[in-house]
Design a protein that fits this description.
Radius of gyration: 22 Å
Distance between the termini: 12 Å
Order of helices and strands: HHHHHHHHHHHHHHHHH
Helix content: over 70%
Number of strands: 0
Strand content: under 5%
Oligomer: single chain
Shape: globular
Length: 468
């Protein structure tokens, strides 16, 4: 029997399953949206309090510390989060049990954490003196926070793959709330100094792990799914459902190996490097090019890019739930629900971005002044440009999840690399008197390029597993 015939024989069931899966995705995203929406507000409040409680220079260093931590943890650890989420969902769709995939992911994560620890200790003078203004306190916050996030991101991938979105939302909410408490303590006078505000970044991932015992207890009570029936049709379906040729050719081996897991993780690592380039290259390059005098400008640029960064907190609800959802659809060969889920998500993002842009057009400068204070004025047009860029970026992130679910991680990574390189090149272009406007325009243009490239990849065909 051909693969297409096999898929066709399952079409009626797939249609029903696709509707159920779509409703499940919607419920999961809704549960996460509530928790992560509050998380975004709490994170925004953390920086708002820090901005009012600290001098412009000290706040600029806090924003740089935050950027450095999340560049490192996103680049190093989110690949394993995505690997776990995708692999667990795929195995559930196939009816596979076992824990070997968890051991593979844990091995990769521990290796990455050890790599960071060694590199950070070797580069301590550079990190402490050149990036963090000579503060040993900020250096050790950076060091300990990054190591703590190794466990946090592993837990996120585990929870997402098992669709335990309530616990996932609880994890990120506890993280944001505990971090906020440190800034609040400084603001109300219970503590003082930049170091206390920074310490919240190290404490947050440790506190968030309080949800892990709940997740493990539920897993122990729930038996592994029974293996899928092994008949000729199932075997042929699994053969056609194997990874596409970009990861080494089709094959029937569904077990996650260290080599295969590392290949996927490297591609996602490239994507994470590029993602952090979009979110953090602006303030970091301003600081690097303008020297010590650029710290205050870097903080200002960071505030502007929070327009793009803060919705990402809310978008985590979509991003976290859509990857396992699309992976299950791809594993089942359900092309129509796959496309429908992507299209509905992108349309919702477009509507959201339009509302944000309208809000900043009307109240942008006033709202930014109220939240962050200071003497510098925020340009209305620039805020609208960043809002549009935010919509393009979130749309691109959705298309990226579709590419990962369909096994096109390497080609997605190439699209990200081209767009991030264009963004950095634009930021390094001389002749701009207004550095903030340069970042705003560059971000929007690069996000548009990324969205176009990933859309072309998405339009290149339905999921590889549905095509077979």
């Amino acid at each position: 029997m051909s693969a297409s015939a096999s898929t066709g024989s399952r079409a009626p069931a797939a249609a029903g399953g696709g509707g159920s899966a779509t409703r499940s995705y919607g419920r999961g995203a809704g549960v996460l949206a509530a928790g992560i929406g509050v998380t975004g507000l709490v994170t925004y409040s953390y920086f708002s309090l820090a901005s009012h409680a600290l001098s412009a220079h000290d706040y600029g260093e806090i924003s740089l510390l935050w950027s450095a931590i999340f560049i490192v943890v996103s680049v190093l650890y989110r690949p394993v989060e995505q690997l776990l989420s995708r692999t667990i969902s795929d195995r559930h769709a196939r009816g596979l049990g076992g824990t070997s995939h968890l051991r593979v992911a844990a091995t990769i994560q521990l290796a990455l954490a050890a790599l960071f620890a060694v590199a950070a200790l070797i580069l301590r003078p550079t990190l402490e003196d050149d990036l963090l203004g000579g503060s040993a306190t900020l250096y050790w916050v950076l060091f300990s926070a990054v190591l703590a996030y190794a466990a946090s991101y592993f837990a996120r991938g585990f929870l997402a793959g098992h669709r335990r979105f309530g616990l996932y939302g609880g994890l990120v909410l506890m993280e944001a709330t505990s971090r906020f408490a440190f800034a609040l303590a400084v603001t109300v006078g219970l503590a003082s100094g930049q170091g206390v505000v920074a310490a919240g970044m190290a404490a947050a991932p440790i506190v968030s792990l309080a949800v892990v015992p709940w997740a493990l207890a539920r897993r122990l009570r729930r038996p592994d799914p029974p293996p899928a029936p092994h008949d000729s049709r199932t075997a042929e379906t699994l053969d056609s459902a194997a990874e596409p040729t970009e990861t080494g050719g089709a094959g029937a081996e569904p077990e996650l190996t260290l080599s295969h897991g590392a290949s996927f993780a490297v591609a996602v690592l490239v994507i994470m490097v590029c993602e952090q380039t979009f979110l953090n290259a602006g303030p970091l390059l301003v600081k690097a090019v303008d020297g010590d005098g650029g710290a205050a400008i870097a903080g200002f640029v960071f505030n502007v890019l929070l327009i793009a960064r803060a919705p990402l907190q809310l978008f985590q609800a979509v991003q976290t739930s859509i990857l396992p959802h699309l992976t299950r659809l791809a594993a089942s060969g359900e092309a129509d629900p796959f496309r429908r889920s992507v299209q509905v998500t992108v349309r919702a993002i477009a509507a959201f971005a339009a509302l944000v842009a309208l809000g900043f057009l009307v109240l942008g400068p006033f709202a930014m002044k109220l939240l962050f204070g200071g003497d510098t004025s925020y340009a209305r047009g620039g805020l609208v440009v960043v809002s549009i860029g935010m919509g393009l970026y979130l749309s691109a992130a959705t298309l990226n999840q579709a590419a990962l679910a369909a096994g096109r991680a390497r080609r997605a990574a190439i699209s990200w690399a081209c767009s991030a390189a264009a963004f950095v090149g634009f930021l390094l272009t001389p002749g701009w008197d207004d550095r903030v406007l340069q970042v705003e325009v560059g971000y929007c243009a690069a996000a548009g390029l990324l969205c176009a490239l990933l859309y072309a990849l998405y339009r290149g065909g339905t999921p590889a597993r549905a095509q077979a």
